[in-house]
Design a protein that fits this description.
With 100 residues, the chain is α+β, with helices and mostly antiparallel strands. It has a domain of 69 residues: 3-Layer(aba) Sandwich (GIY-YIG endonuclease), CATH 3.40.1440. It has a four-stranded antiparallel beta sheet with strand order 1-4-2-3. Helix 1 runs antiparallel to helix 2. The chain starts with 10 loop residues before the first strand and ends in a 9-residue tail after the last helix.
Length: 100
């Protein structure tokens, strides 16, 4: 059975919404536009990593894609990378160049 997104629905990808709704917890996150997966990532602190994407993305393709929404799934550190990789394979986000 293919992997599907089991996390939150979308929140607007801006500083105010990230501060209000993103957890300071381990998990995977998705950046997307209406109907298009832009990027799937993993982080020890989801809120901190999303704020980094806003201010200094290390992936210029993500910046060019200008994601409008984010969502997340809480995942323990031990399973986080595997979950990220399974989502990348299943959802084919446009800006993920490689697994892990």
């Amino acid at each position: 059975m293919p992997t599907t997104w089991n996390g939150t629905t979308g929140f607007y990808f801006n500083r105010e919404t990230i501060v209000a709704y993103a957890p300071e917890a381990s998990g995977v996150y998705a950046l997307f536009n209406q109907g298009i997966w832009v990027y799937i990532g993993e982080a020890q602190n989801i809120k901190e990593r999303l704020l980094q994407h806003l201010t200094n993305s290390h992936n210029p393709d993500v910046t060019r894609a200008n994601p409008q929404f984010f969502a997340y799934e809480l995942v323990t550190p031990v399973y986080r990378m595997a979950r990220q990789n399974s989502l990348i394979v299943a959802l084919s986000p446009m800006c993920n160049k490689k697994l892990g």
